[in-house]
């Protein structure tokens, strides 16, 4: 048998990269009986046949994402346009929680840099994300500016691109992967958001690694967690741990909260704190359902 990485599944067949070529594969019967899900990025063992190979074994996943569906990811490029459409910071914070919770390193890629006109408030927001330790690159899919910061981090890794429709994920992939011609879409003037252009997840060879272009989306549920775990996804709250009046402080309605004092003083970004409080209510509601 030959070991490889699943690139995509389409029309009942699966395509696996192994020994420097792509193999068309079908499933061994036992996998169909189990009704097992296969994600791009799955590490599999295949048995070559006369016409097609068969997938004989699937290794345990190191991690996985469901929306988009991809496995064994090393890092996520969270792609947001700086303009047209305006960046949805609530969605960005949701994505950060999802990928960090899955043990995946995030890298913020801000597209349409050539269209952006500097604004002090917007720049302060992005600088705040950078100070929190999130890697950040501004790129132009039109001029190629900033791509030199993205290419080196792709080498030898499985990378997923995720973000809202219209942010330029497919255009970015076209630039990163020579010869790629993924369909791209414009932003709806009426809805002020992008149209979906990618219909399925597929891995492409790029810079010595693999890159997944994924369907765009505009809503994302938070991963399952306990309410006291949420603050751990907001690194700006770490310096204030143990400084609140109550040990069990959730930094919401409690008095003498060090985090709320930091927000009032401008030391914590107010929109991020607003998102934290919104997410907290969602986590509490999910706890009550289950």
TrEMBL record:
Gene Ontology biological process terms from the UniProt entry: ribosomal small subunit biogenesis
Predominant place of localization: cytoplasm
Domain annotation CP-type G: ranges: 62-220
Keywords of the record: Cytoplasm, GTP-binding, Hydrolase, Metal-binding, Nucleotide-binding, Ribosome biogenesis, RNA-binding, rRNA-binding, Zinc
Keyword S-adenosyl-L-methionine appears in the UniProt entry: no
A single cellular component GO annotation: cytoplasm
Binding-site residues, Zn(2+): 244, 249, 251, 257
EC number: 3.6.1.-
Entries under Pfam families matching the protein: RsgA_GTPase, RsgA_N
Intracellular or extracellular location(s): Cytoplasm
Quaternary context: Monomer. Associates with 30S ribosomal subunit, binds 16S rRNA.
Function: One of several proteins that assist in the late maturation steps of the functional core of the 30S ribosomal subunit. Helps release RbfA from mature subunits. May play a role in the assembly of ribosomal proteins into the subunit. Circularly permuted GTPase that catalyzes slow GTP hydrolysis, GTPase activity is stimulated by the 30S ribosomal subunit.
Family: Belongs to the TRAFAC class YlqF/YawG GTPase family. RsgA subfamily.
Protein name from the UniProt record: Small ribosomal subunit biogenesis GTPase RsgA
